[in-house]
Amino acid sequence: MKNFMTLGQFIIEKQADFPYAKGELSRLLRDIGIAAKIVNREVNKAGLMDILGNAGSTNIQGESQQKLDVYANEQFISALKSGGECCIVASEENEDIIRLDTDVSKNANYIVAIDPLDGSSNIDVNVPVGTIFSIYRRRSIDGPATIDDVLQNGTAQVAAGYVIYGSSTMLVYTTGKGVNGFTLDPSIGEFCLSHPNMQMPESGLIYSINEGNYVHFPQGVKRYIKYCQVEDKATSRPYSSRYIGSMVADIHRNLIKGGIFIYPVTASAPNGKLRLVYECNPMAFLIEQAGGRATNGASRILDIDVTELHQRSPIFIGSEQMVRKAESFMAGELLPDVKEHEMANAF
Ligand code: AHM
Ligand code: MG
Fold this sequence. Notes:
Fructose-1,6-Bisphosphatase, Chain A, domain 1, D-Maltodextrin-Binding Protein, domain 2, 8-stranded mixed beta sheet
């Protein structure tokens, strides 16, 4: 039998790499892995259970919550609470920060921001969904941690990752030293290292964007989409359009195959749809660590000032060269490799 390394073994092996190697971050990552397995079990049997459908409540964004959103939120919070290494959880599903005030947790050094079940509108149709998480060290030295400990820029993340509940379930994460992917082996109930040192291809042939919103996109995005669709043998265009509608699944595919994912501003989402703290920042940290690029169309996502818990941002994320190309369309630059007659045909 081939030797494999479990997530638990890998975390212990890498512990010495962490800036504060007391084992706290390792235990935190382990807690997230445990909650992911529990959520995976429920997501897997979603079609069988009464758990499918709407919980009848709405979250802070005014979106209806699926029962599994609520379940996943509870599982992650409870795992982090009993683990004792996290003092505050910030979740897409909760308007305010959640203080974990057990005797151990309240003095813990880490903050976790989480989107417990991203893309949950896809659950009813058996399409991959995901969990996104981001880990910060608290800044305050004494007293209870506060919202200021949560509102840190993306560059301050100490770890981030996602779980994709797909045709197989994977946990992919970074602690700032590259990206590693673990596939859940259901027969032994362990995440096993299957994708060591993941590298995003510098370029790719896939663009992912909700083109139904085309009419509402900024001019630069419209021009980039047309660029993707123009025939050019030298750059293997036209590219393929692939949009699952689950950010985790779209970005995971692009991470492996090469590609760009864009969620720009639109008329109905003037600041973009996706949330900076628990969607854009963790994905940006991870994709940068894999050699990719993540911006809001002009500036690096990780450098954006975080002022609100549920702040939104447009995002352009993926293969370095593709994101740069999209940015140059956003900046309105004339691009030497776009032939005049191609652009004429495109509009
Ligand atoms: P959610 O957090 O409410 O699930 O919304 C986030 C999801 C992303 O996973 C996905 O990329 C995007 O919303 C899809 O939005 P749209 O349907 O507008 O294309
Ligand atoms: Mg989400």
